[in-house]
From TrEMBL, chains A, B:
<keyword id="KW-0028">Amino-acid biosynthesis</keyword>
<comment type="pathway">
    <text>Amino-acid biosynthesis; L-arginine biosynthesis; N(2)-acetyl-L-ornithine from L-glutamate: step 1/4.</text>
</comment>
<dbReference type="GO" id="GO:0006526">
    <property type="term" value="P:L-arginine biosynthetic process"/>
</dbReference>
<feature type="binding site">
    <location>
        <position position="147"/>
    </location>
    <ligand>
        <name>substrate</name>
    </ligand>
</feature>
<dbReference type="GO" id="GO:0004042">
    <property type="term" value="F:L-glutamate N-acetyltransferase activity"/>
</dbReference>
<feature type="binding site">
    <location>
        <position position="174"/>
    </location>
    <ligand>
        <name>substrate</name>
    </ligand>
</feature>
<feature type="active site" description="Nucleophile">
    <location>
        <position position="185"/>
    </location>
</feature>
<protein>
    <recommendedName>
        <fullName>Arginine biosynthesis bifunctional protein ArgJ</fullName>
        <ecNumber>2.3.1.35</ecNumber>
        <ecNumber>2.3.1.1</ecNumber>
    </recommendedName>
</protein>
<dbReference type="GO" id="GO:0004358">
    <property type="term" value="F:L-glutamate N-acetyltransferase activity, acting on acetyl-L-ornithine as donor"/>
</dbReference>
<comment type="function">
    <text>Catalyzes two activities which are involved in the cyclic version of arginine biosynthesis: the synthesis of N-acetylglutamate from glutamate and acetyl-CoA as the acetyl donor, and of ornithine by transacetylation between N(2)-acetylornithine and glutamate.</text>
</comment>
<keyword id="KW-0511">Multifunctional enzyme</keyword>
<keyword id="KW-0963">Cytoplasm</keyword>
<feature type="site" description="Cleavage; by autolysis">
    <location>
        <begin position="184"/>
        <end position="185"/>
    </location>
</feature>
<comment type="similarity">
    <text>Belongs to the ArgJ family.</text>
</comment>
<dbReference type="InterPro" id="IPR002813">
    <property type="entry name" value="Arg_biosynth_ArgJ"/>
</dbReference>
<keyword id="KW-0068">Autocatalytic cleavage</keyword>
<keyword id="KW-0012">Acyltransferase</keyword>
Length: 393, 393
């Protein structure tokens, strides 16, 4: 038995964690662009990283540390991804850390922004040396790591165990053009004072990735910088694996859903629920095909219940399916039922009403077997084009 | 030895073929929406069809005929795909043909348009019964089969053989939102008076698909209706396999390139040329990843030489690659060279100039081995969203 309580505030509410964000001159107009997470004791750390073959310099830099290393500092910049920058990109990270005035142990860097530009070392060093490591300003940190995000993404929970002990777990993250997960850097930093054993950290990170960040395809087709980092300072002296796993799942789900809802230019957060597939793998293939289909996304933007595009996308995904067992509905409004088109004016009007909502489900029951998966996506409109046609400028 | 001469005109220039297009009331405002191809002798026929699991009724109807059947009539409608319409969709095609006043042998139907609407049998029958089978109006046919196409797509060649004999081969096609090949119906009807043996037809259709229609991903991720049909009436009494194969390749390449150039809202036709891959398969994976990447397409629309998105898309495609052997260029302007960023102001200006063109190459040499493939795509802009947000209306 345990209880998980959503809690107001940022990761700085967790005992021993400090953070802040400043303007170091990477973004124009005084926008925050450099932040840190500092722990006053050494933390166990683990992470899951991008599958992109061109891993960014900060990802390679992290992997140079010995397995099971401890750290007390994470430096995060936006506007420059330090990707495709080769050995000099890694050397620049060392330059940054060797120029900082603080006493740091195995410092970690994380970057997001434009690929293929050298890291502005001087700006970052002078900015970072102005940090106050004893400040607790999660709000500034959450803004400093944003790129095209419309709003900051944070989450915090307190977990109370049967014996009266408790621990906290919280997160700060940035998403991006989730309308096309391809290349959309997502960074997620999770802090906890739970006394989690080192060996549980990677296991629970990976166990929860599949239904959260993977469900928005971030890992499937992924940027050069994607990172989910877990820092544990163990200050609570308490831990329960089941409770921690569920709390971690909630934190990661919160972040994933915020990323979808904040897809570049997106107005709709849509759950693509595929049931009745041959197996869970085929359900996932079909659900992700739907969440990635341009023609589906533009129809959702147009609030057009164009279920033909839904069916055709499933068929194009080549999973086992049959139009005589297929059922398609928007929330509870069935528009196609086992070979029968249910789309008279009345039904079309009901479906159109569903599509006017900010959040709804597109449900496809393939009627083949028991496989199921839910992918999360959003609509695609003019704003997405506007943002991405001139992202560098 | 043979010569292949591009020729003015339509498929109706080929001996024995007749065609026309009319307004049958499927499209608004008197637009042409129903057409036919008629041959005054029986033709050998073969086709390659969509790989979509939900094949449209006309595709299933064709496949009911016995292998090696002959035909003299193809009926083509736009605005309604007759897809997801089950057995009644096939029955409706039989209803149409049984209601026509003409003497037809194994008539074929082909449809494109909205999925999941019953075929308007009466309109099509009354329209088709007004056809004049002796008319030669390829211009009208090419317009009648258009959906979101901005312009008609036709091609015609005369092939002269050493012995002085000659034959013709021509085509009429319609494309669609090639910016996202997913669901974009493409129909291509190829007519010839070459005396091609039945057994060569499918072989040569498939042999030429890979570098033409497959290179624009139409077969990889495909609509419910995609069809490439080859009709041969043999009236020229001459044939040369090598010459026919090359002429067929030219016709199919012409149609594929016209489809890319006419991508919904597209202003740029871009060749994504991947060289130096581990093998041709990996080159194809990388090239198609580029031609399908939203972030690449929107950057091209913005005329932004954002080569970081090019590199990251290749890395995300998981093919064998290494930034220290990778070379990226826009036409002959190298922007990334084996780990070195070549992107000072001067070089960026040169690259930007290339991106102002209507047609150019994005060339990625992976520097791994000899594998190569060229995929064809286009940019993605506001117009694409506008077209697809209200396609049904």
């Amino acid at each position: 038995m345990f209880t998980i309580l959503p809690t107001k505030g940022f990761i700085d509410q967790i005992d021993g964690f400090f953070c802040d964000g400043i303007h170091a001159g990477l973004k124009p107009n005084g926008k925050l662009d450099l932040g840190f997470i500092y722990s006053d004791t050494l933390c166990d750390v683990d992470a899951v990283f991008t599958l992109n073959k061109f891993q960014a310099a900060p990802v390679k830099h992290f992997q140079r540390y010995e397995k099971g290393f401890k750290t007390n500092f994470v430096l995060i910049n936006s506007k420059n991804a330090n990707a495709l920058t080769g050995q000099s990109g890694i050397d620049n990270i060392d330059k940054v850390f060797s120029s900082l005035k603080f006493d740091l142990t195995n410092p970690i860097m994380s970057s997001t922004g434009v690929i293929g530009n050298p890291l502005p070392v001087e700006k970052i060093v002078s900015g970072a040396n102005s940090f106050n490591l004893s400040s607790k300003n999660g709000d500034n940190l959450s803004k400093a790591i944003m790129t095209t995000d419309a709003y900051p993404k944070t989450s915090l929970y307190e977990v109370k165990l049967e014996d009266g002990s408790s621990f906290k777990i919280g997160s700060v993250a940035k998403g991006a053009g989730m309308i096309n997960p391809n290349l959309a850097t997502m960074l997620c930093f999770i802090c906890t004072d739970a006394a989690i054993p080192q060996e549980d950290m990677k296991e629970l990170l990976e166990a929860n990735s599949h239904t959260t960040f993977n469900a928005i395809s971030v890992d499937g087709d992924t940027s050069t910088n994607d990172t989910v980092l877990l820092l544990a300072n163990k200050k609570s002296n308490t831990y329960n694996k089941e409770a921690f796993k569920e709390a971690l799942r909630l934190v990661m789900h919160d972040m994933a859903m915020l990323m979808v809802a904040d897809g570049e230019g997106a107005k709709k957060a849509v759950a693509f629920e595929v049931n009745g597939a041959l197996n869970d793998q085929e359900a996932e293939i079909a659900a992700k095909a739907l969440s990635n289909s341009l023609l589906v996304k533009t129809a959702l933007f147009g609030e057009d219940p164009n279920f033909g595009r839904i069916a055709s996308t499933i068929g194009a995904s080549r999973v086992t399916c049959d139009e005589n067992t297929l059922v398609i509905s928007y929330n509870d409004v069935i528009v196609f039922n086992k070979g029968e088109i249910c789309f008279d004016k009345a039904q079309e009007a009901k479906a159109s009403q569903v599509l006017k909502n900010d959040k709804y489900k597109v449900i496809c029951d393939l009627g083949i077997a028991e496989g199921k998966f839910t992918a999360y996506g959003c609509d695609l409109g003019y704003k997405y084009v506007e943002i991405n046609a001139d992202y560098r400028s």
